[in-house]
Design a protein that fits this description.
- By secondary structure, the chain is of the alpha+beta class.
- It has one domain: Peptide Deformylase (Alpha-Beta Complex).
- The protein contains 3 helices and 8 strands, in the order αβββββββαβα.
- A 5-stranded antiparallel beta sheet has the order 1-2-3-6-7. Strands 4-5-8 form a 3-stranded antiparallel beta sheet.
- Strand 4 and strand 5 form a beta hairpin.
- The longest helix has 16 residues.
- It is globular.
- The C terminus is likely disordered.
- The structure holds nickel (II) ion.
- The site of nickel (II) ion has 5 residues, from helix 2.
Length: about 180
């Protein structure tokens, strides 16, 4: 088990399209997921993608099953490991909300996302995951899957008047974590 350094925006490894995982239930995959979980828990993240710790695999984790102190108003999301994920919007409705990213510390921005999605993938053992999600849950999945195609949330910000430093935008949140 190890807490890894989270790569920050500007690192070219965050801009790659990640490779599909080709074998499930392997020692390497279990170790990766354990390290990602420990790293995410250490910083109270809502999600983490393998490229953020420099691993070029299509693996994301998100959720905790309880309220996240960095997002106190968001409903809990089931604790999930998703390998080789895909998703699609269920309709054309977008929603806007604030996002942060562990690879973009200290900043938040308003990002448009699809409100309702279906996402699919596999867990570490290779069991199929197939869910419908909406709101913050759908947002987190879209954000994490973006990491697997080299996209960070600032690339999706449309209105830069709603992009800035967390401690300026939300004085209360900065006391919890520096993103
Ligand atoms: Ni992120």
């Amino acid at each position: 088990m190890a807490i890894h350094t989270i790569l920050k925006m500007g690192d070219a490894r965050l801009l790659r399209s990640a490779q599909a995982v080709t074998a499930f239930d392997t020692l390497a995959l279990h170790e990766l997921v354990r390290d990602m979980q420990e790293t995410m828990d250490h910083v109270n993240g809502a999600g983490l993608a393998a490229p953020q710790i420099g691993v070029d695999w299509q693996v994301v984790i998100f959720g905790s099953g309880q309220v996240n102190p960095r997002y106190p108003d968001a409903p809990p999301i089931p604790k999930t490991v998703l390998v080789n994920p895909t998703w699609s919007a269920l309709d054309a409705q977008e929603s806007e909300d604030w996002e942060g990213c562990l690879s973009v510390p200290g900043l938040r921005g308003v990002v448009p996302r699809w409100q309702r999605i279906r996402y699919q993938g596999w867990d570490v053992q290779g069991n199929v995951i197939d869910r419908v999600a909406e709101g913050f849950h759908a947002r987190v999945v879209q954000h994490e899957c973006d990491h697997l195609i080299g996209t960070l949330y600032p690339m999706r910000v449309r209105d830069f008047s709603r992009f800035g430093y967390t401690d300026v935008l939300f004085p209360g949140i900065s006391a919890v974590e520096d993103d």
